[in-house]
Amino acid sequence: MRHNNSLLLGLGVLLLFGIVLAVIWWQQMQKELLARRTAWSTQQLDSLGRAFLQQMQGLLSTALERGPEIAVAVCADTAQRFTELFARQHGILVRRTALRWRNPRNQPDSTEAWWIAQFERWNAEGRSLDTVIVLESSTEERLLRPILIRTPQCLLCHGTPENIPPEVATALAERYPEDRARNFRLGDVRGALSIRAPR
User: Fold this and answer.
1) How many domains would you assign to the chain?
2) Which of 60, 56, 86, 87 is nearest to 73 (CA)?
3) Terminus of the chain with fewer CB atoms < 10 Å: N or C?
4) C-beta separation of 75 from 157 below 8 A
5) Which domain does 120 fall in, by range?
6) Is 78 contained in some domain?
7) How far apart are CA 15 and CA 12, in angstroms?
8) What is the pLDDT of residues 73-108, one digit of tens each?
């Protein structure tokens, strides 16, 4: 009986020690994140966003060389992980979002939805979309940049039924049963890059 009590006491001490270590580790991680948090200028955030889009395009272009159905898998898995890693690395929130989303995780919030609709209006009016929208509050700076369908390769996954190969259509239907991101044409607004950074 005394042996069991000693064993339970020892396990309790070990558990308590583990909890204390976990709390210390968590506090240290929070301090490191705060220390790494950068006060980004608007220009720096925009450059960061452009770099993100270029790297993302590189990932998708490489995947397309192996076949459009491979690009679907890369877009579904690798692109999401890359986005999370990029955001964590720079201490910001970054994502691609769209009114006609494919992945439900990319649904826009009300601000993003309003600006994407505005980008679509401007595009229909023939205005240049080489623009970035800057929204500032006391706690964060937010940038929105339109994303356009710029190349025929984009239409292999986002075009009309005539553009999308059957094997790609099958892969999309399996991965994204609620897919809304089709029937785009060259020059259409696909969505927006959304960046949020603490001030």
Assistant:
1) 1
2) 60
3) N
4) yes
5) 40-198
6) yes
7) 5
8) 878 788 889 999 999 999 999 999 999 999 999 999
